[in-house]
Amino acid sequence: MSTRAGSKAPSAPPVFSLAAELTRLLGPRKVLSNLSERLNYRYDAIAFGETPLCVVLPDSTADVVIAVKAARAAGMPIVGRGAASGLSGGAAPTEPGLVISFTRMTQLSIDPVLREAIAQAGVITLSVTEAAKPFGLIYPPDPASFRTSTIGGNLAENAGGPLCFKYGVTGDYVQGLEFVDADGEVHSLTRDAYDLAGLLIGSEGTLGLITQATLRLTTPPQFTRTLMAHFAEVGQCAEAVSAAIAAGAVPSKLEFMDRACTNAIEDYLHLGLPREAEALLLVDTDGNDLETVEEERALVEAACRNAGGTVRRAESDAEAAQLWQARRSVSPALGRIRPQRMNEDIVVPRSVLPEVVREIRALGDASGLHLVQFGHIGDGNLHPNILFDPRTESLEAVHELAHEVARVAIRHGGVLSGEHGIGSMKLAFMREAVDAGTLAALWRVKHALDPHGALNPGKVLPAEEA
Amino acid sequence: MNNEIRTHHPDGQGELMAHAVDACVHCGFCLPACPTYALLGEEMDSPRGRIVLMKEVLEGALPLFEATPYLDRCLGCVGCVTACPSGVPYGELITSFRGWSEPQRQRPLLQKVTRAAVLTLLPRPGLFRAGASVGRFAKPLSPLLPQALRAPLDLLPRTLEPAQPLPALTPAEGVRRGRVALLSGCAQQVLTPNFNSATVRVLSRNGRDVVVPPTQGCCGAAAMHTGARPLALQQARRNLNVFEETQVDAVVSNAAGCGAGLKEYPMLLAGEGEADENRARALAAQVQDISEYLGKLLEQGELEPFLPTSRPLKVAYHDACHLAHAQGIRSAPRALLRAIPGVTVLEVPQGDLCCGSAGTYNLEQPDLAGQLGDLKARNVMATGAEYVVSGNVGCHTQLQSHLTRLGSPIRVLHTVELLDMAYRGQL
């Protein structure tokens, strides 16, 4: 391979000096500066950002410290990156600078006595549970991308997943954090006062770079039962969910997808899902008492039937596993419909779910654009997605529809992000979602922890009003 | 992924590549399925990263030479295709891209020579046998040679089995229930001649006349996947002529890579005119892997029953990438093995990950191929199996070489060899 040397000399002098300085400090294996390399660190799973000037792949927290200090000295912004499977543009830089990719910080240890995992930021989410299983323990947070995503990325976005309805989101499992601040200092945090760890979780790399976490593990439920219900209308599905929970069921997973999603999945996995149904509901009940688990499933079944649904029980673990693989594949499978999309991550009170899904459906139908819905309906977390082809459909119309959908959520007392973060994708709606006084308070927090505005600029908070 | 590829490449191959890039939503679900990402942990060595690089090159935003180190490291195992929910035809993209980019590349002389040697020797069993015989004697010199020459020598077996020429027609045993043609493959005729003999015996036992057209040639997969598109086209056209004349129910292949190659003719001939495109589609529709063909017989209750083994036998099944990922054939070979009374089929841990053989990859990227081969061999050993079977000569050679190096007594066979042994009461 004779090509590495070819583009070693980028044009802007500070770039050259930062890459050269980092290469001197960290060695060439950890520093990427060729165009072909840098081009690959500018996107996440929804957005393309600015091409970074330099990329560092640290092996250790000490490497992160060196990188942060060098970038600070060069006056460069710093964007942390996990597996870049996020859906809000969080890891896509808004301006050229340094990207720190944590994919090589993959040390993981399990303490079965304390029931803790100590994971570096680059550890793959699913591997925590895999490592804990031999000790009879699991790590419940299960974002759809858990085979790809990293703990650091999950912490930055406070990721959720189907199991989070019953078991809680990523942040609920954090006992302690290690992070590198904007000046390159290392801090170790526990969940005592002040709960600074809580502040960093979900801060999308704008307040500090999380390098390691101590995660709480739990014992897995002994019994799990799975069912699938389908409905002729999306609102019926939401009514069934509200009724089931009101009747006292606490399923471990309650997931919904509409007809377009079901068809995209069917094209991928060929499972025999009902292609004609307008809405599909997937439900797990679990626990250590089989009778209760089955009673809960019966409650959900009754609620689905009363709402007009058709119910099918998964007959085997293999069938259940297939249904959950189907659910995890929804988001990327939508690429089969249109090449580009605008996704949302709204959360609304469960009591208004039927109205919300119906209003969003009606907005989609009226728009002439492809709008689909799926999500963690049990906790009111919906992912309306607008699928479009930028060559033939108007970007303005797409943004307008996305804005209308966000307004539906806000009008019904909801919020913009349940688990994906605000990133750059939802920035435009923040002023409507958060009042000016609160935004000012958030900015004061940002200034306190990142006084130079170097950490993931252009994310989460809309620009301060002069 | 938004792209302007069609504007820059308004032809059949350009359309194919643009379509693949369109479908990618850059979700990253492919990352854990990619062997090079697993080894190197860099985005450029992932399917998603490579798609971005190809797009940038095709749009003229990135010089080709900047992208080639990462694109060359792609095994073409298409494990990412199985993992991709949005249906990106990655195999078509990388193959077409290699075909488009090869004429523009400047390769060092030694690389040029070895590429030409491989693509000349591989499709010619006679020459390959002669080369392999000479090569065996050069094996002791291997540590002294440059990497490009060392890799092929290390892979050669110490002894070559005698050739097993196949009759042009082997009649069905008993009642004649069908007529199939066999694609005889190239390297396997020299390295593992029993693959074809066993295949013919098993098909004949199941009432099939087996035609082996003597004028058939290399399927073209090796040329196609390494960017030698003109050669691949020439080889494909020859086979289209030969197999169109055979008048058979199916064209059967026992080499996953070659079977996948024939099934890829529609992609290879895209843009070569409607007549050729239709012929390619017609042949591709006739092609079946041996396990796919026999699996259907098993499903329909028409497969001749196997004799039981003399003692309980543990068999690990290794998924060849070009069977599992490229052709989507996973359950049929396992079902066939389970149909042998006394056989327990074991799964290989990390079974989705390529063994590193990947056509000519272990010649071009011996370091990465070696790491993957070592990992695969250790995973096979962890099953505790007595036999490991697979449906591809490349995997076979790779498994054999790494298991031997690690001192494992596990026997490596083709799936159809084990079925043949079961029919003959040799298990």
What does this structure look like?
The complex is a heterodimer of chains A (466) and B (427). Chain A is 35% helix and 19% strand. Chain A has helices at residues 13-26, 35-38, 61-74, 125-132, 151-157, 164-167, 196-200, 234-246, 259-269, 290-306, 317-328, 330-333, 353-367, 395-411, 430-433, 436-449; strands spanning 31-32, 54-56, 78-81, 98-101, 108-111, 116-120, 174-180, 186-190, 209-216, 223-231, 253-258, 279-287, 310-313, 340-343, 346-347, 370-372, 374-376, 381-382, 385-388. In chain A, the strands form 4 sheets. Chain A has a 7-stranded antiparallel beta sheet with strand order 13-10-12-11-17-18-15. Mean pLDDT of chain A is 92; it is low at 1-13. Chain A has 16 helices and 19 strands. By secondary structure, chain A is α+β, with helices and mostly antiparallel strands. The mean pLDDT of chain B is 92. In chain B, α4 (47-58) packs antiparallel against α5 (64-72), α12 (194-205) packs across α24 (415-423) and α22 (366-382) crosses α23. Chain B is α/β, with parallel strands linked by helices. In chain B, α23 links the parallel β8 (387-390) and β9. A 5-stranded mixed beta sheet of chain B has the order 1-3-2-4-5.
Point out poorly predicted stretches of chain B. Answer: none
What percent of the residues of chain B sit in helical stretches (DSSP H or I)?
40-55%
Quick one: overall form of chain B? globular
N- and C-termini, Cα separation of chain A: 53 Å
Shape of chain A: globular
Greatest interface by residues involved: A-B, 46 and 35 residues
Q: Could you give the count of β-strands of chain A?
A: 19
**Average pLDDT value of chain A?**
92
Unreliable segments of chain A (pLDDT under 50, ≥5 consecutive)?
1-13
- Subunit organisation of the chains: heterodimer
Secondary-structure blueprint of this entry?
The complex is a heterodimer of chains A (466) and B (427).
Chain A (H helix, E strand, L loop, with lengths): L12 H14 L4 E2 L2 H4 L15 E3 L4 H14 L3 E4 L16 E4 L6 E4 L4 E5 L4 H8 L18 H7 L6 H4 L6 E7 L5 E5 L5 H5 L8 E8 L6 E9 L2 H13 L6 E6 H11 L9 E9 L2 H17 L3 E4 L3 H12 L1 H4 L6 E4 L2 E2 L5 H15 L2 E3 L1 E3 L4 E2 L2 E4 L6 H17 L18 H4 L2 H14 L17
Parallel strand pairs in A: 2-4, 3-4
Antiparallel strand pairs in A: 1-2, 5-6, 6-9, 7-8, 7-9, 10-12, 10-13, 11-12, 11-17, 14-19, 15-18, 16-19, 17-18
Helix pairs in contact in A: 1-3, 8-10, 8-13, 13-14
Chain B lengths: L4 H4 L3 H12 L11 H6 L6 H12 L5 H9 L6 H5 L6 H12 L7 H13 L3 H14 L8 H9 L13 E2 L7 E6 L3 H5 L2 H12 L2 E4 L9 H5 L3 H16 L5 E4 L2 H8 L1 H4 L5 H13 E3 H10 L13 E5 L3 H4 L6 H8 L4 E5 L13 H4 L1 H17 L4 E4 L2 H13 L5 E4 H9 L4
Parallel strand pairs in B: 2-3, 2-4, 4-5, 6-7, 6-8, 8-9
Antiparallel strand pairs in B: 1-3
Helix pairs in contact in B: 2-7, 4-5, 12-24, 18-20, 22-23
